[in-house]
Amino acid sequence: MLNIKDITVTVDGKEILKDFNLDIPDGEIHALMGPNGVGKSTICRSILKDPNYTINNGDISYNGKSLKDKTTTEIARLGIMMISQNPIAIEGVTNAEMLRIALSEKNGEHINIFEFQKELKGICQKLNVPESFLHRSINDGMSGGERKKNELIHIWMLKPSFLILDEIDSGLDVDALKEVANSLKEYHKMTNCSILIITHNPKLLNTLKPDKIHILKNKKITKTGGDEILSEIENEGFKKIS
């Protein structure tokens, strides 16, 4: 379970969140929605200890362990992984190299190259991604859709227990969005991982079917519900949702 309790977050001295609370039990999918600029991405970056985001009070814990004194690397080793709306490119480091090193760090053991390559190729086939992706620099020269599919390879290989999806639908056309959403749905079904989705796109939620939808306004969650919230947003927008 991820538990965020009464956190206040500032960026460059500006208060973005105040007394923010959120609980996501094991295996559940939660969506966080709201107008632009209200702090949705701030939640993601606070969980992973972005140094530009200062948590002034409160605490974030995962499976009963406080993340307050942990580094981003230590948090990742707990099984938390974030996919951002614009994954960065890393020139000179291939996907295969990064994944091999990351798995070795995660598991604390030597990686069998034959089994590693076999699993990677199988994932590429599952995702309908060319195997050439494995030997390209991470996200370098890739379109928005290619980057998101590349990140799916990372998810299936690293097997996180908690996924944070920060506007993963950004830059995807209709077909690519469907492929990405269906892959995430399958991954959740197979692993029973927890997922936090930041999105403006009801179509993504129609596929992933979150257990709860939260609305963020005025620095905290102001409303929590189910599918009915999507209808309210489509009909009335965020301004009329209290």
Task: Give an overview of the whole structure.
With 242 residues, this protein is α/β, with parallel strands linked by helices. It has one domain (2-236): P-loop containing nucleotide triphosphate hydrolases (Rossmann fold). The chain is 38% helix and 29% strand. The chain contains eight helices and twelve strands. A six-stranded mixed β-sheet has the order 6-9-10-3-11-12, with helices on both faces. The protein has a four-stranded antiparallel β-sheet with strand order 2-1-4-5, covered by helices on one side. The longest helix has 18 residues, at 174-191.
Tally of distinct domains: 1
Predict the CATH topology.
Rossmann fold
* Corresponding CATH superfamily: P-loop containing nucleotide triphosphate hydrolases
Biggest sheet layout: 6 strands, mixed
| Highest-level CATH class | Alpha Beta
Explain the layout of strands and helices.
Layout: E1 2-11, E2 14-24, E3 29-33, H1 40-47, E4 54-62, E5 65-66, H2 72-77, E6 80-83, E7 90-94, H3 95-107, H4 113-127, E8 137-138, H5 144-158, E9 162-166, H6 174-191, E10 194-198, H7 202-208, E11 212-217, E12 220-225, H8 228-236
